[in-house]
Every structure is written in C-alpha cells, then in structure tokens.
Amino acid sequence: MDFIVRAKNIILSPATEWEVISREEVTFGELYFNYALIFITASALAEFLGQVLFGFSMAHVHMKMPVGLALGRTILQIIAELVSLAIMAYIVDYLAQRFDGERNILSSHKLVVFSATPGWLGGLLSIIPPLGILGALFGLYGIYLLYSGAPVIKKVPQEKAGLFTLTIIVVTFVIFFLIGFLLAPFHTMSMR
C-alpha cells in the first residue's frame, strides 16, 4: 500500500477508493505502521516545529514553546491519536451490528484510519500556527469519508449510514469528554 497514493485517492475519489480498501487484505500492523503512524507523526512534527520555531499567541502575548516541552507534548499527541483510533474503531465495530452492518474489527480500523486522513493532512498546516485552525477544518471532510465508507466497509445500509455516522460522532464525543473529565484532576496536578 503506497500511503501517498492512498491518501490522494481517499480524498479525491472516495467512492472508488473505499471499494479498493474493502477488497484489500491488510494487517493491523500494515494499517498502523505503513499508514496511520506516518501521517500522525508528520502532523505532530509539523505542530512541534510550528510551536518551537514560530510560537503562538494567547491574549496578546507571543510565546515560543521550549523544545523539551514541545517534544514531550508531541510524543503524547502521537500516543493519544493511536489510542483514539483504537477506541473509535471499537465504537464503530460495536455500533455496526446495531445498524444492520457487519462486525469485523479489522474493517472498523480500516474505516476509522482512512477517514482520519484529511485531518492528518490538515495537521501539516500547523507548521505555521495560525493555519492550524484551517487545517483542523480539513478533518470535517473525514466525517464525510466515514459516512461514505460505512456502507462499503461495514455493510451498513445506505439509508442508515447518516444516522450511523452521527451516532459514532456523538458516542465518541461523549466517551472522550468523560475521559477528559476523569483525567482533568491529573492534568491540573501536573501544572503545579
């Protein structure tokens, strides 16, 4: 799997690419090491460079992030994104059957990983911090990719794909909100 060709095709011709992906034999290792980790790392490194080289502004104060702090943050970001993909794949797999789709954890990972592509490519813009927000908007296209891939990859009927996608987004948001809420006390303790 050529990750550049795959990224181009999933963005420019998703209907055709989802069909290719559905027939493709791929392992978890190939999916994560030969695709997801490359884009996650590139996006995180772009943000690292942007914050170290150019800095960021908050409340009329401009700051550059120290290299050590930015590096630690980058490593945590990479780990968090990998964990987030796995959690979301399990959510997709759990919900698929409830929407008359198929349960298959590998296909759930495929759907989640390839749907995240625009967000990672948009993350590359964060090398110039003000463009990071624009890059985040690229991730919205990932919602469309999730919607368009669900009938092909998870065999969810087309008429249920919209509600399936919305349910995934809501359940994922609630779970990550709860995780953030539970971890917030530890974050504030580390800032003291």
Give the topology, please.
Layout: H1 3-12, H2 14-23, H3 28-54, E1 56-58, E2 61-63, H4 67-98, H5 105-115, H6 117-123, H7 132-153, H8 158-190
Antiparallel strand pairs: 1-2
Helix pairs in contact: 1-2, 2-7, 3-4, 3-5, 3-6, 4-5, 4-8, 5-7, 6-7, 7-8
Describe this structure in words.
This protein is mainly alpha-helical and 192 residues long. The chain has one domain. Helix content is 79%, strand content 3%. It is built from eight helices and two strands, in the order αααββααααα. A hairpin with a 2-residue loop joins strand 1 (56-58) and strand 2 (61-63). It is globular. The mean pLDDT is 90.
Poorly predicted spans: none
How many structural domains does the protein architecture include?
1
Order of strands across the widest beta sheet?
1-2
Order of helices and strands: HHHEEHHHHH
Average pLDDT confidence is 90
Instruction: Assess the beta-strand content as a share of residues.
Output: under 5%
Number of helices: 8
| Strand element count | 2
Strand pairing plus helix content: what structural class?
Answer: mainly alpha
The outline comes out as globular
Largest sheet: 2 strands, antiparallel
Which characteristics define this entry?
two-stranded antiparallel ribbon; 192 residues; single chain; mainly alpha
